[in-house]
Every structure is written in C-alpha cells, then in structure tokens.
Amino acid sequence: MRRSLQPISSLLVLGLIASSPSSVSCAHPAPPNVPPLTTALVPPEGGAASSGAPSSGGGYAGHGSESVSPEILAKYAPTPLPPQVSRRIQSMLDVRAPMGTRLAPDGKTLYFGWTVTGTAQVWKADGPKHFPTQLTGGEDVTRMSGVTPDGKWLVISRDRKGEENPGLYLMPASGGPMREVQHTPKVQTQLAFVSDDGKWLYYRANDKKPDSYAIYRWEIASGKRETVFAEDGLWNVDDHRGDKLLLTKATGALTAEYWEWDEAAKKLTPLFGQGEKEEYNAMYAAGPGELLVQTPKFGDFRRLYRVKQAPLTGKPLEASQGTAITPDVRHDVSSFFIDRARTHVYYQLNDEGFTRAHVLDAKTYAETKLPSSAALADATHVTFGAPSWSGRWAILNVGSAKAPTASYVLDWQTNELTPWVSPSTPEVETSRFAVAKLEYYPARDGTRIPMFVRRPAACEKVDSGCPVVIQFHGGPEGQAIPGFNVYAQLFVDAGFVFVEPNVRGSDGYGKAWLHADDGPKRLSVITDIEDASKFVRTAWVKDGKAPKVGIIGGSYGGYSTLIGMTMFAGAYDAGVANVGMSNLLTFLLNTAPYRRTLRASEYGDPEKDREALMKLSPVTYIDRLSAPLLLLQGASDPRVPVGEAIQMHDALEKRGIDAKLVIFADEGHGTQKRENKVIEIGKTIDFLDKHLKPSANDNVKK
Q1: pLDDT for 428-450, tens place per residue?
Q2: Cα–Cα distance, 542 to 544 (Å, whole number)
Q3: Chain centroid to CA 83: how far?
Q4: What letter does residue 560 receive in the DSSP assignment?
Q5: pTM given for the model
Q6: Where is this region: Disordered (predicted)?
Q7: At 405, which helix (H) or strand (E)?
Q8: What are the structural domains of the chain?
C-alpha cells in the first residue's frame, strides 16, 4: 500500500485527469437480486437531527446498475445539449495531455494513457516527439499497469461501464489482440508486480470473498494460476525481494499493518502496525534487512524513514527504530517509491498543493539533483512515472498553471532530460487561463481555511459583484490544487469566480488537519462549508450587495454540496451534487463490501456512531432546502450507490421541492465517456448560469 494518494480535485470525478495528479480507487458491485429503487428514505417530519432516524434499509439496497430499475434509468436519462453549448465544451475537452506511465526496458518506447478517442486508452511513442500509436481501443476505460522485463508484453487493466471491477490482460508490446489473464464479473483483479525473471504476474483479486483480497500468481507461458496467499483481509503486495513479499493489510482509509510473507516457507511474519491505527507505507530499501517507511506518526507531517527490519516483531513502530531521510519541513511526503534496480528513491513533497519532485541516492540517501530545466523551474506540479527496469531512465510529468502536463524522460547516465510527449491544445489559447491564487477565509472559530481562487479578467476585484461558484473536493481526504485546470476554466469563461477550499479534513496540511473530521468529530468542523459562503457574501460585496453563490462538488464534494443546501440552507443560491452521499448511514450499508471498513474509519461506525451519522446526513435536514438543486449520478457507481441520489430526489419530490436528477446508465463514480462528460459539464454550468445569473437565457433543454 505504498502511498499513492495525490491531491484530488473534481477532475478525477469527471475523468479530466490530463493535467493533474491522479488517484485510482476501486470497489465491488452490487449483490444480485436487489429490488428496484422505488421507495424514498425519508426522515421524520420536522427534519430535526435529534428526533430520530430513518430505517437503515427502508430506502434502497445494494449498489450498481442491478440496484435500479430500467424504468428509473429511462426516466432520468440525460437529455442532449444544444450544439452550440456542446461545441464550446468539446473544444475545451480537446485540450488533452498524454501522461507518461511506463518505459520499455531499453528506454526507447514510452507507454502512456490518453483520452484523445473520448475514453482513456493506452498509446505508445517510439522515441521523443514521435507520432503516437494507439494500442487499445473500444468504449471501456483501459490503462497501462506494467511491462515485462524482456519488453515483450504489456500488462493492461480494463474496466467496464465504470463498475470498477477491472480485469487484467497481456498485450504484445508492438500491439495486437489482448490475452485475458482474469476478468471476472463483480471481481477486482489488480496487478501487484511482474517477477524479476519475467515468468509470473502477481495480482490480487477479491474473487474468494468480496471484502477480502487473495494474492495469486499467473504463469505467462502456460496461463497457469497459483494461489500465493489467501488469508481474510484487505491485502496488497507493496514490494518483493526474492521469495519475500512485503504485504500490507489495510485497517482504515489510510491506516495499515505490514507483514512479510515467505513464499518458500509459507510463513507470515508481522512487522509493524499491528495493534494500532496508524498510517504507514513501506518498501524494501537498497540495503539488506532495511525498509523505507513513510509515516506521519512521529510528527504532524509525513516523512520518509529508513528502518532496520531485524528488530520488528509486530509491535508499534517507535521513533528510535527509524532514521529520517527527508527534511523536517511542514510539508507532507505525499508519495514515494524506489526503483527495481534499487538505485534511486523518488519522492514528492506536497507544498500547500504544489507538487515538488525529489530524488535520493538509494544507498547513501544523499539528495540527487534533477537536471536544470526551465520547464521544471516554472512547474506547478512535477510527478514521477515508473522508472525503467534497469533504473537508468525515469519519467517526469511536468505541468504548469498555463499549460497541460508534458512528459519527459530523464537519462541518469547522461543526466539529460528529454521532452517525449507533448500535450494538445487545438484552437485554445492556454496562456489566457486564470491562475489559481492561494487565499484564505476565516472559520467561525477563527481558523484560517485555505482556498484557491480563479477569477475572470472582468472579476479581478473582490468587489466586482461577479457570481461565485465554490467547489468542494472529494475524499474527504483529498485536496484542491492549483495548476492547469480545464474544468475550472470553463466556469471562469462562463463568468464565474471559481473557488476551491481545503476545509478541515483535507490532505496536505498535516495529520491534525487531516483527521479533524474523522467520525463524529466532523460535527465540529462541517461548518467550514457554510463559512465559505458567509465570507464571500460579506467580503466580496459590491455597492452593498452580496454576490450570488453556488456550490458544487463530486463524491465527498457532492455530499458537501448536499450539506450546504440542507443543513446550511440559505448559504447557497443553487447547488449541483455529483455522486454525493445523501445519507451516511445508508451509504455505509450499501457501498461496496471492501470499502465499508475503510469508509467507516473516516465517517464512523454504522452502529456505534449512528446518531452522529444521521446528524451529518443531508436527508435529515431535507425540509430546510429551498434553493434549486441538480443531482448527477452514475448507475454503476460502486462507491456512492445510485440509491443515494434517487432517495434524495424522491424525498424532495414528496415535499413538493423541484429538484433535477440525471442518471448516466453507462457510468460509475463520475463520467468517463466523452459524450457524457460534455453533458455533465454542460448541465452543471447551465444550471448555475440560470440560477446565479437571473437575466441569462436558459440555453439547455431540460
């Protein structure tokens, strides 16, 4: 479970990840024979949080497309946009950046993901600036997972309809038909690693139990599958050395235990994390008997430590057992890895939302400087792709505020940084894009809440009177980030001031900030959502008149939107909730089985914390809502079930409140297909344009 959580923005929900660091999360689909969603889950009359809670199973059951009837899908299917509206969004979506992910062992070919066809697929470039070749196709999201040491095979991951139950495939490196390793309905199959001899693919799958992962290996030559490890638990392989596998067992959204599995001896040895709830991420170091461990345990921010393995016995890790190898700064080490050759340690610092890249010598831990480059100097984010098998070449993905991400290849032997794949910006002048400025607003207890603000040229003054859209990020352990942002620019172009707060509970500001909203503690800081609007309405006034303020977000940001529109009714003039939870209790009971434990560590236990969960649920305050609301949802969503949107909509309808609902039958947790992205963005902007600018024309057919 080496840390891969990057700053999260709405781009992830919308699938627009070309120019921002990415994060991938998967889940299990709905159980069979789930009744159609026909009954709304309605709180007691009056909506008071203390007056009781709805039945935990009265509204809907399960998740995924099986949990909703064809009649409901037809009723709430998206309607098309007028051509002129669609065309405007389409042109912006043509601004795409291919992100370098893997290098061929000889360093001569770069494999990368690109959405130029409308859906993420795998491409390659056989040299710097060479014309790219498409390797995979179709309508399903397909990504590169690995390459074999001999360079003959690519390991490919493919999902279907946003179900987040990907399968694994092999493809010849030159392209051609794919060979299935495993793609089983309702099962996640995820690559762990390719063995150093290129003989075996190791992967994990929840095919034995939906809430546990077993570890398998699959022989490339014969297709033979063997079970490596199958104890119950949310297991993953973080690293390997010889016959030893470094296993992690997730115990919460971020917390984990570490174990070592000896394949030859069939012996499982506890290392650290047992008996505690702490965030750890680890890999084998270059030196024998030593681990690299990333943790915030010994301070407020994550640092990287070298730890001798010999004394580890499963007891909590002590500060005296580790030596820090990254500086003591008020920035998180957001991710790290060591290359397979054990020559370099790569890590990234989260500097208040900006991503700074660093490299250490794997044996001495001395800082290794990256080559001087104007691109690196001007970058908002510099992230690493996987190095080559030999460790000689590494990938750097570089993005700035006014340009999409470009991929470079670093040759450690020559110390040269070569631009390899450039982004596409057809018919769009990116130099005009608004730059996100770091500002702050005060919470009611005096805490300064950071926020990134993008303003249209006509709205540079805070007293411009321009309408404001406040977007809350997903997670909740996510983070709004600066940098090139096509989605934000569409709102800026539409005349909105675009604001992205990092409320308490966000990542990147230390563990005290990150865990400020865990479980029932969320009750104390949920007011950060209302305080954002209060600040805008009082500080950005023109001629004594407050600007109109809208609220949007996806996933946890969708939940934040629903909270802003219900618990804090009146704070916002309109809202658009994308795949948001309307009831934290039913959400926890119906989300994918493996996610339940992880999400309960963040939101609270459905039994022990039931009262707090209902106090924090938008449905509890549904009778307060009076402003316009649009709900967007994917039917196949395994994380936030489609029932969350339907029960919210039905409850509003019963109260005579006009709320719009759009369900994408062929999508999951956010849209992936280009045509659906266009509709989703178009509906959102038009809805806010209509309700935050009363004089605007209604351009979109409802």
Answers
A1: 999 999 999 999 999 999 999 99
A2: 5
A3: 31
A4: H
A5: 0.90
A6: 25-66
A7: strand 403-411
A8: 72-91+429-692 (3.40.50.1820), 97-233 (2.120.10.30)
